[in-house]
Design a protein that fits this description.
The structure holds two protein chains of two kinds. Chain A is mainly alpha-helical. Chain A folds into two domains: 137 residues, no CATH class; 218 residues, Orthogonal Bundle (MetI-like fold). Chain A is built from 18 helices and four strands. Chain A has a three-stranded antiparallel β-sheet with strand order 2-1-3. The longest helix of chain A has 53 residues. Chain A starts with 9 loop residues before the first helix and ends with a helix. In chain B, strand 1, helix 2 and strand 2 form a beta-alpha-beta unit. Chain B starts with a helix and ends in a 7-residue tail after the last helix. The chains are: A mainly alpha, B alpha/beta. The interface between A and B is large, with 38 and 45 residues.
């Protein structure tokens, strides 16, 4: 029946056929489109899922590190221990045995504990930072001597981990870092309201330490700051000048082509290569010190330069030629044209590119391995020549330590690093939104 | 032209900064070397900085033992490090390269022991391993039972090696060849394990090179997985995979006893007492090396040595034993401290 028998009915049949063909295919095409949308949706949700998993994992591990367990102890600032002669000489006050005051406070809380091992376990509940805390209080206010006060002192990392619930109490005592008698004392202190969690200011105010409860990221933050300062001061002016010259002044010939290809290639060179270069040139040849933010900044600016140049050139090309022609038409010189008109219009784009380049430099650790910035540094750096480390390296170093309490601090340091990244990228977006002109 | 002038200016500026730095004496101790010794040296450095207000806290870089000696032997002068951490003894070739650069007087200090453990997840049944079993599991070529001819390692499960062991797949996570832990593992486990075979042992006299190759080459068919220098990562992988066996330092076992267990080797449990007694077969001494020429130039080196060899650091109840370092026996410790503090240099 569907076989055309006469020529007269052919168009009608053809019409009907097209309709059926289209109709028959329509369903398939709709299905293909729906499928394609689903693929896209699945891809996006998978991506989001991984982001959520990563952030969830880091935040859930890291947020407890922002709180720190403190133990309240009755401390008697015994003149016989601190200053037997009563001279109030700062030197005597500095070298006094403050740990003895902490031990006395502990014994006062638990008078029944006896025996060397038991007492050692008891004193182990409080961090060695406690003595330093008492020392600084006395040095600030010598009138404290002789007084008796209830003072919140830093608990040791094991107590902190226990209070945060990260130690399984049901395990056999030999398998936990904290023993049964210590758990008992902690529970007693807790019941008496002598244990509380306070905001962890140490994390932000002190340098690295081998005691988890005393370790902070301030040294790494300052190291990152100095390194990025050098990077910015070097790579931004040089990068902008290069971009302007190549885009506005340089003749288009084979040499500029070669330079352009090379810059594009440099942007893709693995960062460890820059580290090796920095080691050979800055440290071995120029004799600059290892581990200094100056060298770190030099190496990172080598890495950031191509990014800034490429972003700068893109920003310059997006300025319409009419602006240039108008300026030149009004009698401006080429330099005036660039300085007064093109560069200000391209600046937001250049800044955005630079900030993104700097954010990448902030997260970089591989090139710094080679120049000695992977190091344990307690003193917070005060200048470009002081030994320093940076945030991502601090994360790497902490993740490699055996103590369990460093796990949460590693995640906390990652959170701070991510916060800075988000801040910098946010600033780049803000600059673009506020100042960039679209043509 | 302008560009050349600019380059010249930058070069001179850099060179001047460098020179100015080289002239001004460094006022902190610079330490490089092994990542195994790093947790201990950093603890001492911190303690040293806190208890001596007249000295700055030393800077400790984690470069690996070999990388550390390379820097340490670079020469004498403030731009070169003062102390090098090592998880093995300094090699002859390293002493020679030191001497070539003028670094001749080196003080060697033994600080304690570190045990290397083979651990599995707590969820798996403990295995009683011997050095021989481990070698058979990991060597690239093993003697064929019966003939004694060397063949490519055919073993897939632990039961293939020893009927008393469980029938689970051989899967070992360990450090890469750049690691001092790997060197020590090869020396303490592989070298001893292979000597249990008469055929291989005879080779030692006949062809030492071939003997070394047979004993020390680890198989490359995916059974031994190089898991990087991060021991925490290996611990996490072990906890997730009950089949896997991990190789790392004792301090990581001690911190993670809730998740993993150390396997007995030749019937000895890896614990503090057994390693300290020397009963546990896989333990090695840890060292620091001090450049004598820098003493008096860089402030605080002598005091740092005194702190590092003091009873409160390396003693039986010292703070380093809490960090997982196994102390030397008391007599040896005394000797080491006396030698170190009198700055006795190594005899070449």
């Amino acid at each position: 029946m569907n076989k055309p028998t006469s020529a007269a009915s052919a168009p009608a049949i053809l019409n009907r056929d097209i309709k059926t063909i289209v109709n028959a295919g329509l369903k398939r095409r709709h299905a293909a489109e729906t499928r394609f949308r689903w693929y896209g949706l699945i891809a996006v949700s998978l991506g989001l899922l991984f982001v959520v998993l990563m952030f969830g994992n880091i935040i859930s591990k890291g947020y407890p590190a922002f709180w720190q367990t403190y133990i309240q102890l009755p401390i008697k600032f015994d003149p016989a221990v601190i200053d037997p002669q009563g001279s109030r000489d700062p030197k005597t006050l500095e070298s006094a045995d403050y740990a003895a005051l902490v031990r006395a406070g502990m014994r006062q809380m638990f008078p029944k504990v006896e025996g060397r091992l038991e007492l050692r376990a008891l004193y182990g509940l409080v961090s060695s930072n406690a003595a330093l805390e008492l020392q600084s209080r006395v040095l600030q206010n010598p009138a404290l001597i002789g007084a008796e006060q209830e003072i919140w002192l830093l608990a040791s990392a094991d107590v902190d981990t226990l209070v945060k619930g990260n130690i399984d109490r049901s395990l056999d005592e030999t398998e936990r870092p904290i023993k049964d008698n210590q758990v008992g004392w902690v529970d007693k202190l807790k019941a008496a309201g002598k244990i509380e969690k306070q905001f962890n200011t140490i994390l932000f105010s002190s340098g690295d330490s081998r005691e988890p409860e005393m370790a902070g990221i301030r040294g790494a933050l300052m190291g990152s700051f100095y390194t990025l300062l050098v990077t910015f001061l070097l790579s931004f002016p040089i990068g902008v000048a290069t971009a302007v010259y190549l885009e506005e002044f340089a003749p288009k010939n084979r040499w500029t082509d070669i330079i352009e290809v090379n810059i594009n290639n440099l942007a893709a060179v693995p960062s460890i290569v820059f580290g090796l270069l920095g080691l050979a040139v800055f440290i071995n040849f120029f004799g600059l010190p290892r581990s200094a933010p100056l060298v770190g900044g030099l190496v990172l600016s080598l890495m950031t330069l191509p990014v800034i140049i490429i972003a700068g050139r893109a920003a310059l090309t997006s300025v319409p030629p009419s602006i240039r022609e108008a300026a030149l038409g009004m009698g401006a010189s080429k330099l005036q044209m660039v300085g007064h008109h093109v560069l200000p219009l391209a600046m937001p784009g250049m800044l955005t590119g630079s900030i993104i380049g700097m954010a990448r430099a902030l997260g970089e650790s591989a090139p710094l391995l080679m120049i000695g910035m992977v190091a344990f540094i307690v003193d917070v750096p005060k200048g470009l020549m002081d030994p320093a480390t940076v945030l991502p390296v601090q994360v790497y170093l902490w993740s490699d330590l055996p103590e369990r309490a460093f796990v949460e601090r590693t995640s906390a340091a990652i959170m701070v690093l991510l916060a800075f990244m988000i801040l910098m990228n946010g600033l780049a977006i803000l600059l673009r939104k506020r100042f960039e002109r679209r043509w | 032209m302008l560009k050349q002038k600019l380059t010249l200016a930058v070069t001179t500026a850099l060179a001047l900064t460098g020179a100015a730095y080289a002239q001004s004496a460094r006022d902190y101790i610079s330490i490089v070397g092994s990542s195994t010794v790093y947790p201990f040296t950093t603890a001492v450095a911190e303690q040293f900085g806190k208890s001596n207000s007249s000295f700055k806290t030393p800077k400790v870089e984690s470069t690996g033992t070999g990388g550390g000696f390379k820097l340490f032997c670079g020469g004498v002068g403030v731009q070169h490090p003062d102390v090098s951490n090592a998880s093995r003894k300094i090699k002859k070739s390293e002493i020679e390269s030191c001497a070539k650069n003028g670094v001749t007087d080196i003080v060697e200090i033994v600080i304690g022991f570190d045990g290397i453990v083979l651990a599995t997840s707590k969820k798996s049944k403990p295995m009683a391993l011997t050095l021989k079993d481990i070698w058979l599991a990991l060597a690239k070529e093993v003697p064929e039972p019966g003939t004694g001819k060397l063949v490519t390692n055919p073993f897939k499960t632990w039961q293939d090696i020893n009927p008393d062991l469980p029938a689970k797949k051989i899967e070992v996570l360990g450090p890469p060849p750049t690691s001092g832990t790997r060197d020590a593992f090869v020396e303490l486990v592989m070298d001893h394990g292979c000597k249990e075979f008469p055929a291989v042992k005879d080779l030692e006299k006949a062809d030492e090179k071939q003997f070394k190759k047979v004993c020390q080459t680890i198989r490359e068919d995916g059974v031994f997985i190089e898991a990087g220098e991060n021991d925490n990562l290996i611990v996490q992988k072990l906890a997730a995979n009950p089949n896997a066996l991990g190789i790392f330092g004792f301090s990581f076992l001690e911190e993670n006893l809730d998740k993993i267990q150390g396997e007995t080797i030749n019937g000895v449990v890896p614990n503090f007492e057994n390693i300290a007694d020397g009963k546990y077969p896989v333990s090695r001494p840890l060292f620091i090396y001090v450049k004598k020429a820098h003493i008096g130039v860089i402030p605080g080196i002598k005091e740092f040595i005194a702190e590092f060899t003091s009873e409160k650091a390396v003693g039986d109840d010292g703070y380093l034993s809490k960090k997982g370092l196994i102390p030397l026996p008391a007599a040896k410790r005394k000797q080491a401290a006396a030698d170190a503090n009198s700055l006795k240099t190594m005899t070449p």
